[in-house]
Amino acid sequence: MEQVAPEKSMLNERVPPQEPVMRKVVFWLGVYAFVGVAFVSAIMFGTHQAANKQAMIGMMLVVLAVWCVIGGTLTLIYKDRVRTFVLKLPGSWQLKFIIFATIMCLLEEVCTVTMTNMAPLFGVKIGEAYITASTNYLDVVLGHSVIVLFPHFIVWAWFLTKYDISPAMVFLLYGITGNIAEVQFGGLSNVLAGFWIFIYGLMVYLPAYCIPHDREVKKPKWWFFPLSLILPGFASVPFVILVRIFHTTQPTHFPPIH
Prior knowledge:
This protein is mostly helical. Helices cover 71% and strands 0% of the residues.
């Protein structure tokens, strides 16, 4: 018994501490997102709206169910097992964070591109309703989404090298960053769409949970929080310019949906 206790203590010490306040914030954001999605869905499906708009809402509901509900639940259940596995992998934790977050982003795009390709199941032709810029997965991740978000993960690896930021806080801050990014694609209505916080937040929560907790860091100052929302966007500017030069200058490969 005397030998087991220290081992348990060491294992507990390596697990990131939980923030009750942040968990409550995320919970109430989830309630807000659910109410917002339910309200919009009721309007779209309960009134005579265009078929393409109803199809887009249907696509998003499936993505929310798969990525946020199922994916989020699996994350909470298996996060400690994944953390143990990732910590044992060779390489710096910063590199592992960047790769892991990129993989999560790629997985999320599997859900969204699949929905765009499944437009006929929602009663419309491909291109009449969509939630990604193209039906081609490589085109989406290399010409529109992941290639632009990749610098965000590099910036966040740097943030986590310097500051003590809990996984829940990383989830929230990057979720807000993603919400802001969606405004550029879907308009100002996305500012109030709380579900984007969960879609983007889940890309970085598990990678942030899998970094060493005993690293030498300091508590962030107040100015870090607005900086964390701005700096990732600036880091993406060179990638956005390259995409505009070598790829399409249009936001999507489909006709706009008004």
